Amino acid sequence: MEIRTDAIGKRFLHGWVIRNFSHTFLENNVYGISGRNGTGKSTLLRLLSGLLSTSTGSITYIQDS
Questions:
Q1: Angstrom distance (rounded) from CA 14 to CA 44
Q2: I want to staple 57 with a disulfide (CB 3.0 to 4.6 A). Which of 8, 20, 21, 49 is the partner?
Q3: CA-atom Rg of the chain in angstroms
């Protein structure tokens, strides 16, 4: 599976947590997410898993046949 993010962003009442994030996550690769508290790490994972919807941009899931 491949996950592509195109300029995704997430905004809550207090402001933007993630803004203009684009990346392609490839199958069989290992990724690490680091950052200080409140910088959007958990929000990014919730967006990628479909538990949250994006405020801007799109996420595409491509399943290999």
A1: 17
A2: 8
A3: 12
Neighbour count for residue 44 (Cβ, 10 Å): 20
65 has pLDDT over 80: no
Taking only the tens place, the pLDDT of each residue in 1-50 is 999 999 999 999 989 999 999 999 999 999 999 999 989 999 999 999 99
The SS3 of residue 45 is: helix
Q: Which two tokens stand for residue 17?
A: 């947590």
Q: Give SS3 for 41.
A: helix
